[in-house]
Amino acid sequence: MSWTVIDSPVGELRLVEQGGALTQIEFTPFRDHDGRPRGRRDDDQPVLVEAARQLRAYFERDLKEFDLPLAPVGTDFQQRVWKELCEIGYGETSSYGELAHRLGKSNAASRAVGLANGRNPIPIVIPCHRVIGANGTLTGYAGGVDRKQTLLELEQDALF
User: Fold this and answer.
1) Distance CA 109, CA 124 (A)
2) N or C: lower Cβ tally within 10 Å for the chain?
3) Same domain, yes or no, for 49 and 85?
4) Are 20 and 66 a contacting pair, CB within 8 Å?
5) Phi, psi of 93 (to 5 degrees)
6) pLDDT confidence of residue 160
7) 65: in domain
8) SS3 159
9) Rounded Cα distance, 138 and 140, in Å
10) Domains: count for the chain
11) Is 86 part of the annotated catalytic residue set?
């Protein structure tokens, strides 16, 4: 298990890998005492080098789909939600209710989908920023609504 830090338009990001797969992307301020293991810093670890390269290309609007080995840790339901998030295309958005329906659930599951969305350990690559409220509002985002807006604008600008 190892990590590195890169600069981005949404602040520094800490990338964490374990067993050759990306397990976390963390926004600043980093929470070093939250009990999550991260290992040691290794700026030359191959998965981290490739993740950094793809993230930089994404922020430069040269990459629309990530191709990285991912290993987010979560419950079966969270895993299903995160997998569904990856189906939301670059520059597109979905509501919590639409995600619930795609998972075969009713609108009543929107809240559970929202909670799973908020616990996504690999934001940006697993694009939880593309989920918005049914009325089009940005609603919450673990990294803060300002970051969510920046990511959505970056993708919209790249489409035109």
Assistant:
1) 23
2) C
3) no
4) no
5) -135, 165
6) 61
7) no
8) helix
9) 7
10) 2
11) no
